[in-house]
Amino acid sequence: MNVNSDEHVPLSPRALAERASQFTFNRNIPLRNWLRTGTTLLKQACIYIREKDFENGLFLLYRYAELFFHCQTHPEASQYKKELHEFYDTVNTALEEITLLKPLVQESYDKQVELLKRQKIEDENLNKFLVSKNHDVDKIPQQTNHSISRTHSSWTVDDLKLYPASSTKSNDETHKAHSHTLDFSYPSATTTSSVQNSAAGIPISAPRPIPNVPTSQTNGPPPLPNKPLNKLTSQFLHFSPPSEVPEKQTKSFKIQCYTEGGKPLRTVFLPSSIRSTFLRIAKPNTDRRLETCGILCGKLRQNAFFITKLVIPPQEATTDTCSTTDEAGLFEYQDKHDLLTLGWIHTHPTQTCFMSSVDLHTHCSYQLMLPEAIAIVLAPSKKLSSGIFRLLDPTGLQTVVQCRKPGLFHPHEGRIYTSAEPPGHVRELDAPLEVVDLR
Q: For the range 416-419, what are the long-range contacts, defined as Cβ-Cβ under 8 Å and sequence gap of 24 or more?
């Protein structure tokens, strides 16, 4: 669905539920991939709820439940009875979470609608007044002392050089003092003048922002239903009652990139040292003309992804291919450390920097699980030594999903993939990178 991020239209819980159901469930995709996608959705929902972004959390819980009903109809369902039973148990708990979240989101929605109505009336009255005074309508200010701010609580990549809110230095002075170093930490800037409210819109991908609600106009979210917090709430989501919600709400990163089909892509922050680090790890294989692959893992924070770990899984390789040999062990490690799979990286020791047909089919699984997932290709012996890619969405993604051509290497018609580097959704960041070698 194509959503214009500039249309600041709040969404009710009912609208969120309807949008959550609007995705294509392709039964040709292995069920294990869909089950892994479900795990990814639930992890993201939990993070959004911990950050008090209830709209996004509710949207993803709706999507999680919707996915379960589709998975039951998959041709391979009989082979995954145990996994589907576990999925069922978690969905029941997620539905209880939805019951808790709906009144919070409804209250926020009602207040946003009311504020937008007031804003419209104020703008119309102001226009009438200025026109009656023969003022040029084109000179009508967009902001007045009486109007509600439309400024998004958002971040750009430049805002990563953050400073404590209590600092007395000016922005220019602080920027000079920190211009050469950046002690990395997850952004945690707060604002005392507004409460962030984001409405989910695109399947799986992050939603667009909607207008802020000034704290002076709200008395906080409504009380939760009079019932004990359930297992998922207290242990996994770490849900806090409204009385524990801090007045200062964290900001979220602004959506700056969209797919070819109009879906928003959340920003992926990549440690700038990842290429040189991975090339050192891959050198023994590169010297033997063998490929090496690694998994890009990280966290979701404030509507953006941060790659924090480079995991080297057990693998087997040739001069033109590389594949993991213990997928279950890799997933177990990621789940144990609460990591999201944000993409993968591999070398082309004998070829140029491009996405082969094998690479396209491999990356398809990553991008179906997470639309923002990226593929990094390193070709150290060539002039164009590296690239960061994603499949075109929807055309490239659909082409690969529907491809049934035999053999590892085969051509695909048309343009299939594109660069994810700026102006794409990937930004490099001077941040630490942990390497975990599971071989």
A: 416/355, 416/360, 416/391, 416/392, 417/355, 417/360, 417/363, 417/389, 417/390, 417/391, 417/392, 418/389, 418/390, 418/391, 418/392, 419/387, 419/388, 419/389
